[in-house]
Design a protein that fits this description.
This protein is mostly helical. Helices cover about 80% and strands about 0% of the residues. It has four helices and no strands. Helix 1 runs antiparallel to helix 4, helix 2 packs antiparallel against helix 3 and helix 3 packs antiparallel against helix 4. The chain is globular and about 50 Å long.
């Protein structure tokens, strides 16, 4: 099951939306590889992408939150940190044990978390930014 970047994932912020599209594409590459029996080969690329992505994307989001004085910034940053910690654990597991079905499942479950985060948390941030710009 691939993810579509549809209206439910649009925040209206060009930078954030373009980065979210990159994330969806990466996850879909992994899902596609899994469906072809090649998930173990793609997992390293996905983990590397997620480590780089979370540093850049969450950093960009947090700069916007600071700039527009987002009132729930502390909670949002904590959610980002938890996600980054999960990616780090998955990366360490990969480095120690290589690829496994369980590891692939963990990476796929991260996708579900991120989709929910976009739909709920990121939309709140962008709504606040839009209000602050008025």
């Amino acid at each position: 099951m691939a993810y579509d970047f549809d209206k439910t994932l649009e925040t209206g912020n060009t930078l954030i939306d373009s980065q979210h599209k990159e994330l969806i594409a990466s996850i879909n590459r992994l899902l596609d590889a899994c469906s072809q029996g090649k998930g173990r080969e793609e997992i390293k690329n996905t983990i590397t992408f997620l480590k780089n992505y979370t540093d850049k994307h969450f950093g960009d989001e947090e700069v916007l939150q600071q700039k527009y004085k987002y009132p729930d910034i502390v909670n949002h940053k904590n959610l980002h940190q938890t996600f980054k910690d999960d990616v780090k654990k998955i990366s360490e597991e990969f480095e120690q044990n290589g690829t496994s079905i369980a590891l692939t499942f963990k990476v796929n479950s991260i996708a579900a978390w991120f989709i929910n985060h976009i739909k709920v948390q990121d939309k709140k941030v962008v709504a606040h930014i839009k209000e602050a710009q008025k």
